[in-house]
Structures are given as C-alpha cells and as structure tokens.
Amino acid sequence: VAVVEVATGGLRRLTTEGVELFEDWSPDGSEITYSSRRTGQADIWVIDLATGSQRQLTVDVRDDTRPSYSPDGKWLAYNSERGGQDDIWIVPAAGGAAIRVTNDPAEEGRPFWNPDGRGLYFYTSDQVNHLFAVSATGGTPRQITAGEEDNASPVISPDGSTVAFEGERGGLTGIYTVPIGGGEERAVAVGADYFDPAWSPDGSLLAFMSPREGRRTIWTASATGGEPRRVSPEGIDGFEPFWHPDGARILFHSNAAGGNRKVMIVPADGGEASLFIDMERVAFEVWSPDGQRLLFGHRNVAQGRNEVYMMPGGGGPATYLTAGQNARGATWSADGTRIAYSVVSAEEGEDVYIMAADGSNKTRVTTDPAADFAPEFLAGDEKIWFVTSRMGNLTFGVFDLTTGMEDFPFDFDLLPQTADLSRDRSTLVIEARAQGNGIVTVEVSGLLAGSEE
After folding, report:
1. What does DSSP say about strands 2-4 and 395-400: parallel, antiparallel, or unpaired?
2. What DSSP line would sit under 401-424, residue for residue?
3. What percent of the chain has pLDDT above 90?
4. Spatial CA neighbour of 334 closest among 371, 285, 384
5. pLDDT at residue 438 in the model
6. Please, what is the Cα angle at 255 between 254 and 256, to 5 degrees?
7. Is the pTM of this model over 0.90?
C-alpha cells in the first residue's frame, strides 16, 4: 500500500508485509484501511497517515476483505468468510467486537453504505452451477440442465448425443445424463454419493467413483440406469476413472498403490487391479486418437514443475516430452501428429504451446500476459480453443494456427468452471455459474444504536 501526492508526484510506501491491498479512505482522509495476509489469512488493518502506525481490526481463521467506512467514519462494513459462508459484518473503526449483519448461504460481498449511514448495500448471488452447450467456434450457450441444485463435471457421450454429469439432488451427489440438445434428465446412479463420471468407448456404460463403502472405489452402471456395481478391489483407494480404448479395462487414480497418486488398471467387470503407470503424482491422462499412446502429466516435486510424458497404450517406459518446461494440460490433435499444452513461466505467465508428437518443434501460440490454458484442437486441427483469464473473468478464446489470429467468439456472461469437448470437436458443454449478481440493502441502524459505546 502506498500514497502519492497529486501535486508533486511524491510517493510514500506505507506497508511492506506480503500481499496487502488498499481498500478505502476514511471520510476525513486521516486513515486508510487495507486487507493483509501477513498472518496467513486476509484480515483488515488500518493505517494512521499522520503517524504511520498500523493496527489490526479483525482476527479470524477465515478471510475478511472489502472494508468500507460508514459516512461518519465510526464503522467499517466488510465481507467475511467466517462461519463457512460469505456474509456481511461490521466492526467499530476504533476497534472492538465484530457484529454479523447477514447470515445466508448465498454469496454476499462488497458492501457500501447508504449516504445517511443507516443501511448497507451489497452484492449477492445465489446462482447454482448449470450445464450449457455451445458450438466450439463460438455463439450463445444453451442451458441444458434445470432446477435449483448444482450440476458439475460434464462429459459428452462418444456419439455426441448425451451428457453425463454430477448432480446434487436432496443432499447427495449422483450421476445423471441429459440429452445434449436439452430435455429430461435420467438418473444413472443415485442413493449414495457418486462422482467422476466417465463414458465407456461404446457409450453403454458409465464408470464413476463412490465412497459409499467407507473409502473411494470405482463403480460402473448402465448408461440407461440400474444398480451400480463395484469393479475396483476392496481395500484399494480409487478415484478419477477413465477407460482403456479396448473398453474391457478401466484405469483409475489411487493413493494406495505404494506411492502418491499412481495409476492402476482393473478389468471393467471387476477383479484384481495392477499398476499401470509406475510414477507418482500423475495428474491427467489423454489417449491418442488411435488409442496406441497415452499422454499424462507428472508433478516433479524436486524440480518444482509439472511435466508431460507419453507412453505406449499397452504400458511400458514413458518418454519425457516437455524438457525443462513447467507444462500441463496436454491434448492431441485429431490426426495424432501434434500436441497442444500450456506452459507456466515467471517471465511470460501461462501460454498455449504446440509440439510434434515426439516432443520436437515446440512453438508458443498465445503471448498475452494473462493466463491461457486447457487447450483443445478443434475440428480440422487448424484452430485451438483455450481458457483465458484476459477478460477479467475466465472465458474462452480461439486461436487460428493458419492466420495467427485470436478471437473471443463466445457470446455470454458466465463464470466457467469446467468444460468438455465432443469427440468430433464441434460442441462444448460447459459447467458455469451465471454472473447474476444483484444489489440488495439491509438496515443496520439498530445494530449501530445498540453498540454506540
């Protein structure tokens, strides 16, 4: 936090402790309030500009941010996550006990005062996550899920007709499907918590994870619904399943394979599981279009970087493709000759790169200081879709490898969480939260009057 004299340009630095953000001036200009993480979480502090002295106003294990002075300078309203949800609190500017103003599961924040000091305005959002389908080259998304509960982790069926997803219904998360064009949802696995849906190559089955027996294990069920069946052995931790291209085996992540987050393989109808990737901290896996090669990510703790490897589809030694780069999120072109991925660096931020399938000819594609990541080749392999933070919130961009032109053709105002691209690379299904923030007001004069001392 620093102040600059407008007339002279003289700059005076006020704080030097970690991440600290200016928030508000006191009405008389004698103090500045800011949020600081010097104690490990965000708390609210005040600086006296005349003396430079600093004092901490809030102390909590959850974040306190966005303080705003009342018109008379006696109070600060702020946003707090204490209690496990975003609510509005107030605290005397001179110090004292904090008072809760709102208590609602909806997200509430960025309070500001009514000019008479008797009430507060603040932003609120009680939107749930829904699934939206949109052309991979742009346009306005079409919402394909309904209701008042969250939906997450969409995966498109091999034939492109149906989307499987996690849906929270009645306090439990189950596996559901819905037509990609919209329509009535179908329950695949309910009655317990189920997560991480993955389609079999022929689209007849869904694999998923469940902790229903006390630990995470892998289950399958017919895509049309039915009683789930556990396929991973009892006693082995299992999550994030994905299918072998032969449809007869399922791979999954496990923390019980003699190391940290290794990859196991098990017959799709159940049986003994064996180690498939003999490396720890494996992050993602993507089969080549012909099913003969597997890309996967690895966290190299010693070097402090993420790496991309390729191995034969039947197992065997892995080849390190991204030598020296902090790389993640790799994917194949449709013809299997190129790989797109993102690279994180202190100098460039995060950008999209492409390379040949053998790791040669590495080329930087995007060059913006904002983060560009999670690339996917679109139909024809001459355009790359990617996630970007350059619009203030996460959104999507398209890079034309032939012309070198970027475009941001998605006509919507959503906060995307995850996305899946159809096998023909023509359609995206997005898990997103609409930015439906509204401004509401609350009367606080009674709270202030009761705490004037």
Report:
1. unpaired
2. TTT--EE--B---EEEEEEEE-TT
3. 63
4. 384
5. 61
6. 90
7. no
